[in-house]
Design goal:
353 residues, mainly beta, Thrombin, subunit H, six-stranded antiparallel beta barrel, globular, disulfide bond, secreted, Ser/Thr_Proteases_Immune/Dev, Phenoloxidase-activating factor 2
């Protein structure tokens, strides 16, 4: 899949009538109205799969020779109780000489979302965050068109090609999918879904929940972390095996809107209130395959404890300088999440700091 991104500098558009301007054809809808919300232009960060299998590997994997793995140092860490606690030095082992790779069980709330493709195989379609032993929060665009009976989540995963990890991952079938009622596929507004699991997960050191921020939470001037098993760059032919983590600056809404107007989205693009932005630094970004995954920020005065700020939604390319990535804003989703937990009789204590 090739994505071509066109950049346009801000300029005065030529008038062609009363309240009309000359514009690129792709910036006008079928009724010749200017597109302001990006519909038809945004690129969701879904995994992109080849049409055929590769040497017996399950898509999206390809058959490659592994590089020499960094040597692990065995350590033991106590397991705190409550949401959002990370294991910054890993659990039972610590990677050395690592760049943008998470330690084993560093972020216990990160889950992989799998779609069954035949009787014996499944593939990763994105990421999510564990809110309770029976609830995962992800992006609606990842699961909206999928058959619920074919969806599974995997908790406690780290290295997708190594089964010999200190603690095993756990799979759970999805029993119910709840899409945010205001989700709009065309422009990604309110891009959120809750997945209810058939069997509860047992929480522990490598499987835990993330904290949720209050509805009025702000993350201005913070650097936060995005994580997932998606591509590192748009042009990459493969997906990484080990969970990646990338530090990104939160970008204010007005600044983000201005920066995105210099892309293919055009000078009339308006960033919806249900979205937030992070990134804009060269080669540092979420990418294809990371959709639905978590963007987390540290809790005040607790650098190793995190709250969920956003869900990976879309971007104009990956890691393009001065082009932030776009996320579903979790504070804007908080009231809806609380309501769904109440309706399904699930305790909110699992995500409350």
């Amino acid at each position: 899949m090739m994505i071509i991104i066109l950049y346009r500098m801000a300029k005065q558009e030529k008038s062609c009538g009363l309240n009309k301007v000359c514009s690129e054809r792709y910036l006008c809808d079928d009724d010749n109205n200017i597109i302001q919300d990006g519909h038809g232009l945004i690129n969701y960060r879904q995994a992109v799969f080849a049409e055929k299998d590769n040497g017996g590997c399950v898509l999206p994997q390809v058959c490659c020779t592994l590089p020499q793995q960094p040597k692990p140092l065995h350590v033991e860490q106590p397991t705190p109780e409550g949401c959002g606690y990370s294991n910054p030095k890993g659990l039972q082992l610590t990677l050395v000489e690592t760049t943008n790779e998470a330690q084993f069980a560093e972020f216990p709330w990160v889950v992989m979302i799998l779609e069954q493709i035949d009787s014996i195989s499944s593939r990763s379609i994105g990421g999510g965050s564990l809110l309770a032993p029976t609830v995962v929060l992800t992006a609606a665009h990842i699961v909206d068109s999928k058959d619920v009976s074919h969806l599974t989540i995997r908790a406690g995963e780290w290295n997708t090609v190594n089964e010999a990890e200190p603690r095993p991952h756990v799979n759970r079938q999805v029993s119910k999918r709840i899409i945010h009622p205001a989700f709009n596929w065309l422009n990604s507004n309110y891009d959120a879904a809750l997945l209810l699991l058939r069997i509860p997960l047992k929480l522990g050191a490598n499987i835990g929940t993330v904290c949720l921020p209050p509805p009025a939470a702000q993350f201005s001037n913070q650097r936060c972390l995005v994580m997932g098993w998606g591509k590192k760059r748009n042009r990459d032919l493969w997906y990484p095996n080990i969970l990646k983590k990338i530090s990104l600056p939160i970008v204010a809404a007005d600044q983000c809107q201005s920066m995105l107007r210099n892309t293919q989205l055009g000078q009339f693009f308006n960033l919806h209130e249900s979205l937030l932005c992070a990134g804009g630094e060269k080669d540092k970004d979420a990418c294809l395959g990371d959709g639905g995954g978590p963007l987390v920020c540290s809790l005040p005065n607790q650098p190793d404890r995190y709250q969920l700020a956003g869900l990976v939604a879309w971007g104009m390319g990956c890691g393009v300088e001065n082009v932030p990535g776009v996320y579903a804003s979790v504070p804007k989703l908080r009231d809806w999440i609380d309501e769904q937990f109440h309706l399904n009789r699930i305790s909110k204590e699992f995500y409350t700091a």
